[in-house]
Each structure stands twice: as structure tokens, then as C-alpha cells.
Amino acid sequence: MSKQPRRGRQWRDREIKQVRRERGISHTAAMRIVDAERAAAGAPLPAWVRPKGLHVGERWSEQDTPFTPPPGVPPLADPYGHAHDSAAAGYLLTFTVPDREEAAGYSEVWEAIVYAHRFLVVPGRGWMRAAVGVYGPLPFPVPNSSDAETPEGYVTVTVMVEPYARLAPGLEGLKGFMDASWDAATAAVLEKYPAPAAGLEPEALTVEVEMLQSLRERLEPRTLSWMYLHPTLAEGGPAYETYPERIVDIRSRGWSHTGRGRYAVDFREERGLPERTYDELAAIDGPLSVVEPPYPGNAEEVVERLVEAGERAAGSLLVALHRLDASYREWSAESGEPTCSLTAGQEEAWETKAMMDLVRGQGAVLAGQPARYSETAVTELHEELEGWTGVSQAYTEVAQNLAVLFGRAAEAAGGWAALADAELRTLAPAKKWLMSRSTLA
């Protein structure tokens, strides 16, 4: 008889059925894919390599990253909780630390608790993906249960800890989750500040839901930054199907979601990179940027700048793109590897190829003809496009979004001829790309 846990078998069967439906293949073929993925999940990942010429947070190193699972600990059967909804609970945590003049002095303790919850280890079972909010400190700490006195130079503080994850319903699973959270929070505090005396070890106290809600309303939480958060634990708990459709890695390569939290790189054959889960990709080539549309307010400003530039609008846009592309290529040449890019949002799209042909051809020509562009427009467009494509939480796809915004400007100004000078008006590739999303095309 198989000794595989029943829940593990049920989740494996669910995965196999999902793959069969998505790919239209046989049960046996789907089973082989699922089992291969599970085997890969337990194998060590390639080491993260620090990108040259880019600043990355201190938690990223060749030995560990925010997305690297704990060594020697297997994942649970469903470590991301794909089959379940998000659930949260909370408790008060009291501990003793060196006295600080301001609450901000304890931020390293809050951050340690938060960071320890990324891969929450359930003893004897494995790790699961989780997150936590740490609220406080409370104005009045909860007294320690022991008679031990707080030594001089130390202070006892209480915070509210609210862990959350995607959990199977039932008290047993919730209790195991809360116990794991308590263990992680306690270990994180003691690693930073060992108990100054016996009886002053961290203590947890469960509280009623009403108190948790009241504290949540009055106190600001410390949570994971965008660089560390897994999509399944984003605000509101996205459904299994709502991983980001596209992401960009730290080396400016675009990746597309293929289903079940897995991603395939653009130009896969040329690059020779395998499909990877979100965590694997982030641990190897993170931090990651999610491909998102431009911020609406900034998008309106782009449209306004183009309309204001009149017949020099198309030229100004190509010059701004040329300058930014030249900067990115210069940085890449200095570091010996890709840094930032204008193309990572949709590398294989026809609009991207058309844009880059124009930027490196006509854009270079226009850069030497200042009468054909507006320096004010170029400066402002350059700044906006750098924000779209620099290293941050979001990456905005350039070619298709510019076509949308240029089309809106053309509709407001009176068509293609109103935004392009006499020479550019006859340049068919420029019109084809920039007017491709316009109702006037």
C-alpha cells in the first residue's frame, strides 16, 4: 500500500487533470509532466548572480534570496495553497529587547518577523508560502507571565502578529499554521535579541477577532515589500489563474505565464532557458517586475505632450526613445550584461521590432536635426519612458502602449499629419506602428 499522504495524492491528481485540460494531452503524459515538476521543485536552484551595474537589496546574495526555499526542507503537497482561499488569524507577541528612544528603533525586529514568514516551515511536513503583518508596538505591553523583572536598559514590548496564507479549511490546518507562525516569530526575535534573563522569552497570546480588527484599524502594519511578495499572497488573495501574465527579470528578459504559476522566457529556443515557477525565476533572476499598463495620470501627460509638440511629436518621441536606448546600451556595454531595456514587455511582438528598427535608424538621424523635434517634449517623454522601463515593481511595455497613446493624441490633434513632419508623414513603418491602435489608422 502506498504511504503517500492522502492529501498529497488528491492534490497530485488535481494537478494532473489541470495539465490534461490545459494541454489536451493524455493522463500518462500529464502525469509525467507533474512528477517531473515536483522532482525539480526538490532540486537545488542555480545560484543567484548579482547583476553588474544595478543596485539590489542586501537580502539578495549568492547564498540566499527572498525566494530561495529553506535548505533541506521539502515543500508541502500544495505549498502555495492554489486549491484554497486566503485565510488569516492573529495573536499578540510579547518580548524583551534593548531599550530604544523611538519605536522605529525596533524596526529590525519587525522586519525579521516578517521575513521569517516567507517560507513558513510546518514541523515534520515541509514549507508553505505565507506572509504576515506586524502591527505595533501596542501603547501598553501585555505583562509577561513570569515574575522576571525587565533588566535596566531593556524594555518589554507587545506587537500584534497577523499571518496569512492560502489554507485548506479546518481547525487542524489552522492550528498547525499558527504554531508554525509562532515558532518563526519567536526564532526571529531571539536571533536578533536573545532573552536577557530566564522568564523573559517571547510569549504569545491569542485574542478575539474583534480586538484584532480594532488594532488593525489603529496601527500601521509592517509587511513584505514588493520585491519579496509572492503573487498568491498579494492583497486580496488572487485566484490560481491570476498570476501576472508577463514579468521581466533583472536581466531585462520577458517571461510569459503558461499556467499553474509557471513561466516561459521570450525567445526560448535562442536563450535555452527552461520553464520556471515564479519562485524559481525570482530566486535565480530576481527581483522581478510585473508588466503593467502605464499609470493613467502619467499616460494623460504623455498624450498632452505629444499634442503640444504638434508636427514635431513623432520626431520628439523617436529622439526620446533613441536617447534612452543609447543610455541602456551604454550601461549594458559597461557592465557586460543587459541592464534595462525598451523591449522586455513584449519582446516578440511586431510592434516591438518595428519600434526598435525606427529608434536605431530614424531616431539616430533625427537626434542630429534639432529643428525636427521639441527638446521640452523629448525631456519629458524620456523621463516617463525611463520610469516605465527602469528597475522597479512594475515594467510598462513600451511599443504597444506608445501606439495607444500616440493614437489618442492623433485623434485629439487631427490625425497622423498633425503629429508628424513632412518627411515622417511618408515613412510607412512609422505610421504603421504609431497609428496601429488609432481609430484613424
Strand content: 5-15%
As a whole number of angstroms, the C-alpha radius of gyration is 26 Å
**Anisotropy-based shape:** elongated
Largest sheet: 6 strands, antiparallel
Q: How many domain units?
A: 3
Show unreliable segments.
Answer: 1-8, 236-241
Structural class of the helix and strand makeup?
alpha+beta
Succession of helices and strands: HHEEHEEEEHEHEEEEHEHEHHHHHEHHH
* Termini gap: 67 Å
Number of helix segments?
Answer: 15
The chain-level mean pLDDT equals 85
The helix fraction, in percent, is 40-55%
Number of strands: 14
Secondary structure layout:
Layout: H1 6-23, H2 27-41, E1 86-88, E2 91-98, H3 107-116, E3 119-122, E4 126-129, E5 131-135, E6 154-166, H4 171-192, E7 203-206, H5 209-218, E8 221-222, E9 246-248, E10 254-259, E11 262-265, H6 268-271, E12 276-277, H7 278-285, E13 289-291, H8 296-309, H9 313-335, H10 350-360, H11 362-367, H12 375-389, E14 394-395, H13 399-413, H14 422-425, H15 428-434
Parallel strand pairs: 13-14
Antiparallel strand pairs: 1-6, 2-6, 2-7, 3-4, 5-6, 5-8, 9-10, 9-13, 10-11, 11-12
Helix pairs in contact: 1-2, 3-4, 8-9, 8-12, 8-13, 9-12
Give an account of the 3D structure.
The chain is of the alpha+beta class. The protein folds into three domains: 58-233, no CATH class; 243-291, no CATH class; 296-434, no CATH class. Helices cover 41% and strands 14% of the residues. It has 15 helices and 14 strands. The protein has helices at 6-23, 27-41, 107-116, 171-192, 209-218, 268-271, 278-285, 296-309, 313-335, 350-360, 362-367, 375-389, 399-413, 422-425, 428-434; strands at residues 86-88, 91-98, 119-122, 126-129, 131-135, 154-166, 203-206, 221-222, 246-248, 254-259, 262-265, 276-277, 289-291, 394-395. The strands form three sheets. Strands 1, 2, 5, 6, 7 and 8 form a six-stranded antiparallel sheet that branches. The chain has a six-stranded mixed sheet with strand order 12-11-10-9-13-14. Strand 9 (246-248) and strand 10 (254-259) form a beta hairpin. The radius of gyration is 26 Å and the shape is elongated. The termini are far apart. The model is unreliable at 1-8 and 236-241 (pLDDT under 50).
